[in-house]
Structure formats: C-alpha cells, structure tokens
Write a structure and sequence with these properties.
It is built from 15 helices and 21 strands. With 449 residues, it is of the alpha+beta class. It binds ligand MV4. Residues 131, 156, 164-165, 168, 200-203, 206, 208, 232, 235, 275, 277, 287-288, 437 line the site of ligand MV4.
C-alpha cells in the first residue's frame, strides 16, 4: 500500500513532501517544468519527469501530464502539496480513475467545501458558529439590499466559488450595494466561471485564526491547536504563530471542539484546516475549510511534535490515528514568510540568482526552503522563497529567537521582505499580541513601507 508517491508540486512544499517520503522509506517522483530543471525538488527526488514548459497552465496544472508521469514511473499515490491542483476535485477523480491514491480528502468532500456558501450551510447545520447571513445564494443586488437592511451595515458580499478574499466586497451603505454587488459577481464570473453570491454581516477588525485537523478513515479526528494568521496583506499571509496570542483558554477549547464537530459533520478525512474569524470579544465564526496541507503547517508541527505531512501519507494508506481529541501543545512557534518581493515598491515580485546564501541555525530554528547558492528563481511561479520557523518556550522568547535567526539569515542576489519581517516582530502591536487583520495597513509608517 503506497509503494511510490508522485509529488504534483514544486518549490519548498515539494521538498517538504520528499522529506516525509524519505523518512517513511517510500520512493518519490518529482515532476518539473522546463523552467525548474535546476530546482531543489528535482535534485532531491528519487526519480523525475518533465511535464511541460514553464507556465503553470502547461505543466503543474496539466492533469493528464501529471497522471501520465505517475503511470510511467509506477506510482500508486499522488501528493498535491498546496496550490496548483491541491483543491481541484477533477484532479482527485482523475487520480481515482487511474488507480492512484490521492493524498487528501475525496473529490466529493472537496467540492462540497469548495462551494463556500454550501460549506457554511453544512457547518451551520452542525451547530458550528457562522457569521449571520443569507441562507445560501442571493440572486441580485436588490435582494442583497433587503437582507442587509435586516442585518445592519456594514455587510460582506462574497462569491460562493471564491475564497481567500477573491470575489468579496465590504458594503458600508445601501447606496453602494448595487455597484459593489455587481462588481463582485462579475469578478467571480470571470475568475471562477460562477457569479453566485451570498451575503453576511461584516465582522469589523477581525482576527484570522484557524484550527489544524487530522482525520482518519474510521472517523477519528484530532486537532493540533490553532494558528493565528492575522498578519497578512491583501490576503497574503506574512507571519503565522501558534498558539494565538488573542484566544483565552476557553475560546481555544471551544474552537477546537467546533473543528472536531465540523469534521464529523462532513465526514472529513486527511489533513484539513478550519478558518475562523474572531472578533475582539472572543466570538468566533466559521469562514472556510481548506482541504489541503497549508503553507503555515510547520507552526503546528513545532508546538505539537506531529509531522503533518507524514500523517497525511499514513492516513491515505489506511492507517488509523493513535490519538483523538485535542492534542497537547508545548511552547510557542512563529513562521515568517520570506518572499522575493520589495515592500518599498508596492511588494513588486522580483527574480534573480541567489549570489550568497547563509542559513541560520541553533536551537529551535527550522527553514523550509528550496533555495541554494547559485539557484536562479524562475519567473513563472509565486514569490515564496523560504519559511523561517522558530520555536521557543514562550512567545517573548520565540520573538527574540526569530529576530536572531532573521539577523543570521543572508539571502543576496534579489530583493526580499526579510527586513519587513524584522520590523513586524519589533512593532509594539505585534510584541503585545494586539494585532488584527488590519495590522499591516495600520502600521505602514512603522514598518517603513
Ligand atoms: C469576512 C470579513 C469580515 N466579515 N467576512 C477574507 C478572506 C476570506 N476567507 C474571508 N475574509 C473576510 N471575511 C465577514 N463577514 C473579513 C475578511 C477579511 C479577512 C479575513 C481573514 C484574514 C484577512 C482578512 C482581511 C480582510 C478581510
């Protein structure tokens, strides 16, 4: 059962999955585009298959090429990583049609969680707290305005097919409704081929807190605590930490219980994340469920000692979780995303060749990255270069350790956001644990952006 795994991804996450395969003694196959010939995941995998030219549409998104690569190398399982095909139910079906185990949940579950309005209804039925709003879709701006009068402004109009902030508008007053509703709907139509919208009351100044879950095929569910991902810009997370400095212990426990109930309600299997919005009064509301491993999963690994990717593979090959309920966490972990982007220039992405590369070390320091000295960043892909993850006994120590590690970390040859990460950690609102999703915008000067 699971004799060889194909990794349908690139960059740091492909490397992360390769590491898990090696520790489980399972051979692994990397796929790569013509632009990724010199990539670390190609160097580290047991076998490699080129699946097309640089643009993702011709390579990492080409289902037939990936399935073909798995077939010719004799793989019986596929790990999707995150992004690309990780939340595409068609890909899951293609895997099944070709007798490949998809390392993740079923196509049906993925589809049901991919429809954000339907997911919300499912959770509401399971008595998980959701933001007050429409029961399902709202057909037009006039209906939306009627409902908004009931809930009170401000409200959010959101695309059912959206997620991660796409196809979403904050509406402050009735006179804005028509134009913003139609704008969001046509944006969703263009982006997802589905302009279906739903409506909810807006939570002002929210925190983004998410709960990591693992579920096996027997229906056992485990939570690995929460991650606070409120430090983000335009829905791109920059810093994540666990535990959340916001939650009091009762709220944390209630959120983890809600996450477990949510997984039971939808029959979830494998690793997943439940996203919640949390307001300043510790009220939490289910937002979305991510049916994949996430970029920020390492902070949960650091505070629990659980290897999430290893567990994904174990679950996919039919093994059962040995523990259930909420697992004990220890200490504090912080992740900083090092991106090839220039904060002082509108976060413009840039590429180049890594001319000098020195990684930090010492206790409690982890780097998940595909970088090496001499590596040239291809132009086709996202700007994530590395994740610096630190662990220490408590939050203040973890912040000091992160600052020390950032100082040791040398990346030359292109512009990165490393100094911005330092300034975020030094900002009073961050140090005091008193930040919301508005943190970056509220601290532009302090962060010298
Ligand atoms: C909201 C909200 C306020 N009220 N919904 C953005 C991403 C998507 N997952 C949900 N999002 C939001 N939904 C209501 N009813 C505010 C946001 C939001 C946000 C959420 C999480 C992290 C960062 C954010 C930044 C802006 C808005």
């Amino acid at each position: 059962m699971l004799s060889k795994i194909l990794i349908a991804n690139r960059g740091e996450v492909a490397l992360r999955v390769i590491r898990a395969c090696k520790e489980l003694d399972i051979p692994c196959v990397a796929v790569y585009s013509e632009a990724d010939v010199d990539s670390m995941h190609v160097i580290e995998a047991d076998e490699t298959v080129c699946i097309g030219p640089g643009p993702v549409i011709d390579s990492y998104l080409k289902i037939a090429h990936i399935i073909g690569a798995a077939e010719i190398t004799g793989c019986d399982a596929i790990h999707p990583g995150y992004g690309f095909l990780a939340e595409n139910p068609e890909f899951v079906l293609a895997c099944e049609d070709n007798d490949m185990v998809f390392i993740g949940p079923s196509a049906d579950l993925m589809r049901r969680m991919g429809d954000k309005s339907l997911a919300k209804q499912t959770m509401k039925k399971a008595r998980i707290p959701v933001v007050p709003g429409s029961e399902g879709a709202v057909d037009n701006a006039a209906d939306a305005a009627k409902l908004a009068d009931e809930y009170g402004y401000p409200v959010m109009v959101k695309a059912s097919a959206g997620g991660g902030g796409r196809g979403m508008r904050l509406v402050h007053s009735p006179d804005e409704m028509e134009s913003l509703f139609n704008m969001a709907s046509s944006e969703a139509e263009t982006a997802f081929g589905d302009g279906t919208m739903y409506l909810e009351k807006a939570i002002v100044g929210p925190h983004h807190v998410e709960v990591q879950v693992l579920a096996d095929r027997a229906g056992s569910v485990l939570t690995l605590g929460e991650r606070d991902c409120s430090v983000q810009r335009r829905h791109q997370k920059l810093v994540e930490e666990s535990p959340s400095p916001l939650l009091d212990p009762e709220t944390r426990q209630k959120m983890c219980e809600a996450a477990i109930a949510a997984c039971r309600a939808c029959g979830y299997m494998n690793a997943g994340t439940l996203e919640f919005l949390v307001d300043n009064d510790q009220n939490f509301y289910f937002m979305e469920m991510n049916t994949r491993v996430q970029v920020e999963h390492p902070v949960s690994e650091m505070v629990t000692g659980v290897d999430i990717v290893r567990e994904q593979i174990r679950i996919a090959r039919g093994e059962l979780l040995t523990m259930t309920g909420a697992i004990q966490t220890r200490g504090h972990a912080i992740e900083l995303r090092i991106n090839a982007e220039d904060p002082s220039n509108g976060f413009r992405p840039n590429t180049g060749t890594i001319s000098r590369y020195v990684t930090p070390g010492g206790p409690g320091v982890r780097i998940d990255s595909h970088l090496y000295e001499g590596y040239t960043i291809p132009v086709f892909y996202d700007s994530l270069l590395a994740k610096l993850i630190v662990w220490d006994v408590d939050r203040p120590s973890a912040i000091r350790r992160a600052l020390r590690a950032l100082d040791e970390y040398v990346i030359e040859g292109l512009v990165t956001n490393k100094d911005l990460c330092t300034r975020i950690l030094e900002a009073p609102a961050f140090r005091d644990g008193e930040y919301t999703t508005a943190f970056i915008e509220e601290n532009m000067e302090l962060l010298e952006i």
